[in-house]
Amino acid sequence: MERKIVKVGNSLGVIIPATYLEELGVTYKDTVDMEFNHDLQTLIIRNQKTKPNNKDHLEQVVKGIVDKYLKEKGL
Predict the structure, then answer these.
(1) CA distance 25 to 71
(2) DSSP per-residue codes, 4-65
(3) pTM given for the model
(4) Per-residue confidence in pLDDT tens, the chain, 75 aa
């Protein structure tokens, strides 16, 4: 999904779609953790209230990738 950078006061920001916020389980005034992966040039946003168990988190990531791939292929 392509998003535009917008001006917010003296800063810049990106509007995060409501569906993504719902999936993260965050709402107005919640706090999130942000991490920038230099190798992948990716910004990662996590719900600060739900710290992932590394094993479960890896399984969820892999399942998400496989599900997305299968859906794109119509399987």
Answers:
(1) 23
(2) -EEEETTEEEEPPPHHHHHHHT--TT--EEEEEETTTTEEEEEETT-PPPHHHHHHHHHHHH
(3) 0.57
(4) 899 999 999 999 999 999 999 999 999 999 999 999 888 899 989 888 876 656 677 788 888 899 999 999 988
